[in-house]
Amino acid sequence: MNVLLIGSGGREHALAWKLAQSPGLSTLYAAPGNPGIAQHAVIAAIDPADHRAIIDFCLRNSIQLVVIGPEAPLVDGLADNLRTMKIAVFGPDAKAAQLEGSKGFTKDLCKRAGIPTARYARVTSRDGALAALGDFALPVVIKADGLAAGKGVTIAATRDEAEAALEGMFGKSGGDAVIEEFLTGEEASLFVLTDGTTILPFGSAQDHKRVGDGDTGPNTGGMGAYSPARVLTPALEAQAIDMIIAPTVKAMADAGMPFSGVLYAGLMLTADGLKLIEYNARFGDPECQVLMLRLESDLLALMLATAQGTLADCPAPVFSDDVALTVVMAARGYPGTPEAGGAIGDLAAAAATGAVIFQAGTRDIDGALVASGGRVLTVTARAADVRTAQALAYRGVDALDFPSGFCRRDIGWREIARESV
Ligand code: AMP
Ligand code: GLY
pLDDT tens digits, residue range 132-141? Predict the structure, then answer.
């Protein structure tokens, strides 16, 4: 079968790498792709925001499944438009993607369905927001309602900071925001595939959001991850499915907007039990990289069954017992303004260490690979324990020649500390 993959990041490179191993695949296409994805797919230079061009491409190339990697095209209704043309899609339609696209929508749904999450107030004006702020202790969490590429959340330690964040949101344009109680605990991510009815657990991971070692500095899209997140024990995972994910999937179906695709739950393990921090309507980046390294099942078969609503007939996805760990190499300046154009060399030497290199913000200029984004590469390795997986991933990192790049040197620290006890 011919498949079109939408996206251009490390997540999509990992999906392309895994899809390319599926016996059911004829040709994999990717739009817009990147030089790493081009190792596994035919690149189509189409902007995913141009839905008509994507549909035309699908019809001309007998595409039987479109896999949408990032959130923006989902929220923008690309899946809806493809489904109207009877093209199968892995990824939710725009209404279901509100689980990621609107924080207020998700909080209201949690309240209606009795799903444990931080106490909140949904606010739509500056004055309303300032009035609601008084009901919350410090620190307090302020979130813009819509997609913000990881930049829409402020954790305010003082009332002045909270007011400044709200001022920033409502000062210019009005808008919509959520004020939330601050939760304390360890975060973990749980992934499930769902076709709107059936739910298949699809692994867990932990991310490292801050740019600096020791979890310091500004937030990023993620500087590294590992899977599984052992802190999410089988009992806690079952609880997350029963108390959080299953009621969400049912509430969405009952509301006439069934969610089909991968649902990514950001969870907080608080002293009062598990709570939902947020949903994403797609795989995490770089969490996808570690999931794909551990996945033993046929990804294409699972994605197709998700798209066709036949997950009930699928065997549960199988993951290796190994730990996978990934280190993100970013361009100097990230998450501010990253330095563009830095040369990247010795990819073959890095791959020879056994690590798998997934490309994100890279560009091929006359056969030379250069950086063209914030997060540039992810170096991923798999081993029986997290300490070995970490050592293998950093051996890959050290074999690369990317002088204008940097990475965190402590990815996996929590898990290693746990393993050492
Ligand atoms: P979100 O975009 O909702 O995932 O928020 C980004 C990050 O902010 C999360 O991964 C958490 O680290 C943090 N965060 C969000 N909401 C809360 C909360 N209610 N309490 C504590 N931390 C939070
Ligand atoms: N790594 C976090 C995310 O993909 O949202």
Answer: 999 999 999 9
**Cα 258 to Cα 177: distance, rounded to the nearest angstrom:** 25
Would the CA dihedral through 199, 202, 204, 209 be positive or negative? negative
The residues, any chain, with a CB within 8 Å of residue 164's CB and separated by 6 or more, are 156
Residue nearest to atom 3 of ligand 2 (CA): 284
What's the rounded Cα separation, in Å, for the pair 255 and 249? 10
Peptide bond between residue 32 and the one before it cis (omega within 30 degrees of 0): yes
Determine how β-strand 89-90 pairs with β-strand 63-68.
Answer: parallel
pLDDT digits (tens, 9 = 90+) for 91-107: 999 999 999 999 999 99
| Geometric angle at alpha carbon 277, from 275 and 282, rounded to 5° | 120
Distance 376 CA to ligand 1 centre (A): 24
The Cα angle at residue 57 between residues 52 and 63, in degrees rounded to 5: 120
- Measure 128 CA to ligand 2 centroid, in angstroms: 30
Whether pLDDT at 174 is above 70: no
